Request: fold
Amino acid sequence: MIPYGRQSITQADIDAVVEVLRSDYLTQGPVIPRFEASVAARTGARYGVAVNSATSALHIACLALGLGPGDVLWTVPNTFVASANCARYCGADVDFVDIDPDTWDMSVASLETKLATAAAAGRLPKIVVPVHFSGQPTKQEAIHRLACQYGFKIVEDASHAVGASRNGEPVGNCRWSDVTVFSFHPVKIVTSGEGGMALTNDPHLAQRLFMLRSHGITREPHVFVAREHAGDVGDAGPVAASWYYEQQLLGYNYRMTDIHAALGISQLARLAGYVDERNALAARYGELLRGLPLQLPTITPGNRSAFHLYVVRLRSGRSRRAVFDELRRLGIGVNLHYSPVHLQPYYRALGFGPGQFPEAERYGRDAFTLPLYPALTHAQQDTVAAALRAVLEC
Ligand SMILES: *Cc1c(COP(=O)(O)O)cnc(C)c1O
Reply:
């Protein structure tokens, strides 16, 4: 079976991990800050906060922005469930904004309409989470303009879009958002095994994110609030005893390990090459699949997608289920990203149902993901295309 995605691990990756295993620290050592600095440098964000998954990054981003019971977070139905679940972890409600029929990202027009209605009803979202679906950047500057108008915060779920850019600016620079989240799960663009990162330009948010990642604890004297309890701290200055730390918030153990960060740093060195290879393979699919009854990905002018996923939509009378099953039988590991989140049993139990987000539901009925990863050979890609031709032309 040719899988839909696969990590690439080199000897350099293995050496980097082994080096940490032989060092003094397995976690909370010097490698985490180096990984954070490398990701921040590549994206242009001021701060990077490494955590054990993108899901954790989404959770602490929501907490750092003050999301809580009574608040609402909006995201898209066409995403992994984590983009919505982060609100539920905070006791907040979730609502969805339908997708654009061409880019499959959040529709800015739908967002605008829904905001006007929500403003009239006094139920505006506190946070909007656009998802750079498949690696294609959302029209973030337009969403930011609406954030200024309506006063919501933006957390970009860029789990698919490490290495993508829009109008020459890297996704993750946080120019148009409060926080951007990356995933380093093995199927994503670069991996740390498990891992994620929250990026921001705001020093206060960064401070809170660092604390929330590790029990709500800080060891930085300049932010201590209870100096009188700091043991040896005298009137002479804010020099706390070296054992002193403060828990100021209710945080978690969401730390990344140095082992994971070492793999992340090593992989990051090949990011540009991986994104080039993914784009080249995507362009080649465009050639190979021409003339078949499929809607191929549309890239918005100004965008460079990271092509985490290569999704096509069935435009023939055949049922998606039949096409999907036949392709699997031919050894092609097609998949679906995503069945709409609002139709998951958990969200249906909260009151969502069919008919609410028709574009995402149509997408969920006719989309499927083809194999795409840097090590996919042209011969394998030809096999995928031939299988599609055999299934769709009969
Ligand atoms: C993979 C993914 C996540 C979660 O990432 P983890 O690192 O596995 O927690 C969140 N959002 C989207 C859109 C994803 O694809």
